[in-house]
Amino acid sequence: PCSPLFTMAHPSDTEYYWRCSYDFLASSGYRLRPKFAPDYVKPSIPVRPLDDPSRPRHDRAEIMDAERIRDGKQVILKCVSRSVHCTEVQIGTLFSTAPLANDPRNHCIPILEVIRDPEDSDKDIIVMPRMVSAFEIVTLGFETVGEVVDCFRQIMEGVKFMHENLVAHRDCVFLNFVVDPTELFPNGTHPVRTVMNPEFTKLSTVVSRTSCWPRYYIIDFGWSERYDPKCGLLFESVVRGGDRSPPEHRTSEKPCNPFPTDVYTIGNILRTRFLMSHWGEQSHAPLRFLQPLVDEMTREEPSARPTIGEALAQFDFVCAQLTKSQLRAPGVANDELFAGCMHSIFQFHNWITFVKPLSPHLTALYAKIRKTTRHPPTDPWPVNAELRALYTQTRSA
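Predicted structure:
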């Protein structure tokens, strides 16, 4: 067992588990930061927090960063309890295994490996590629409408893929969407504080999403469930996740269909984090074209909401009508004059250097939609009315 005096060093009480697991993880092929090593000695000379790469800590005790020893790949470790979150490993590995893993519509975070804790039969350690929050505004803002469109198009495509495979995420809050930082941070970033470089000595170098069009992923399947249509309409107890605003969550005693709730929470991210100004309740003008869709996705009655596939089809149709100048408009509300001026300079640079305001994939897709579709399309999936009821029907009071 670890010495109780260790809690006086840099690792906190919440990091105690990872310090105790250092040797076991090393033997499994993963190296934690030096401060977790059994022979680590706390510096005798005080250092300023910003100069101390061991000081920043993950917000959640079950999360830890590591390096894969064989190739230096940066990964994230997540310790999960089989008894509490029994579907976390099951759902994660489902989408990380062929044929689902090979589908380009699959945006579930790849599970690289699942390690059994030798000291606790209830614990599994999931190994995933290191990502950063998709909505990290401080270091990685949304500079254009095109960047917002690309982000939410991937998110909705990924959730639709989950629903097609009869899996409800059940906690589609903004914290559970991440982005691959490989090209966004060309020189790397600190695993906890993305604003800093890996050595925690200076600010990290970051490029715009427009310059590389990163891939977005869905994480955290601890509350996810897979359903069987043959069992009829299934209703689940309310999950008190990150977003507690869905109308069906006001009465926790009443079970609800989790699929419409996924649709609501995605629409609510758009409504609360993008359509609203920082200083008021008015809509952010460049994204106002999404307001009707957001209103549909966040309807009071769950059964009146579109399926995620229908919402994606509507999203594609309205986004396909946007001009280049509309796609280059600010992605988030700029309530400060300086921010607005900097955006104008950035967009002028992109214009004169012929930088496309949308990813090549969406540019081609939306060009095809403009040529072939005159009205908002109806989603071709699901075609079976009984199956559609699985995604929309609610239980009578």
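Summary: Residues 1-9, 336-340 have pLDDT under 50 and may be disordered.
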